[in-house]
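Collaborator request, handled under Task 6.
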Amino acid sequence: MGDLTVAKMQMVEIAKAVSYNSKVVIMDEPTSALTESEVEHLFQIIADLKKRNVAIIYISHKMDEIFQISDDITVYRDGEYVASDRAENLDVDKVISLMVGREMDNIFPKVECPIGETILKVENLSSGKAFHDVSFELHRGEILGFAGLVGAGRTEIVETIFGMRPKTSGKIIKDGQELQIKSPKDAIAHKIGLLTEDRRGNGIVGLQSVGTNTVLANLKSYGFVMKKRRMGSDAEKYSQALNVKTPTLDTLIMNLSGGNQQKVLVGRWLLTNPDILIMDEPTRGIDVGAKAEIHTLITKLAGEGKAIIMISSELPEILGMADRILVMHEGEMTGIIDRKDATSDLIMTYATGKVQEEARA
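Structure tokens returned to the collaborator:
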């Protein structure tokens, strides 16, 4: 199992849950790592279960899915029951306002930020069979989106840049200097941060406190004898700035919601003051309100001159937030699309490799 992608792990979990022949099946964010075709397959399974009189409790933050398959919808906020109704009596705007406790006018608060000089240049980067010959530039103040289907190689590219996997060829150049990044420690030293795709697997340290998780990537700055008062002050600062909902900073991070865990991880990287922040699926599995806060933060960071790489499997998020979109297909970069030219259809054409097929034809 450890060798599978997050998406394939998810499919095994779904198969396991369905195999019990249960009368009630609870699915908690089952599609968070799945492609559109895999989601369609899951919905066929759900329809089959309903025909067999199996009851489904389906937990999701994806509004289109909720309305596609639900008979009844119940909303909770901050651990409290808010409302229930038949799906036919609700719409997306109503559910979102119930979830966040206010009207949401702009889910993707994109602000046009000045694009500065090139800060990162990747030339013909390859890592074994995962991906090959990827080249792109990243500018200060830019949000560069990475799009593609599951298994396209997007995560593998940023893991290579961050030193989590070895590069087999190519160059990584920052501010005109070629970098030799062999570990995350090297990447952090060059002011590169990575918000990981797998929040629970290699993001949070579940049995450590919120405070410890916040300062974890910045321990070197606190000296050999840890300056605990300064560590606590820094953790408190970013906890408040990111509106992390936690009883205290001593609370184990594993006891927080997914959205609040994600905010702690964002705070961890902001504390290192990175020039480049890579965010792999930054809003996966978190509620609409937390998503809006993360989106606002990403835009704010770009406005401050930070360079952002954002990987997302949600096309509306990529289209709403990115200045340019790099598209991958089966380990190969198929194109870079400017914001003004980007559409869902065009991205999917590149993501499914149709552009290459037409070129070869």
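The cover message to the collaborator said: "The chain has a mean pLDDT of 88. Residues 36-51 form the longest helix (16 residues). Please let us know whether this matches your experimental observations."
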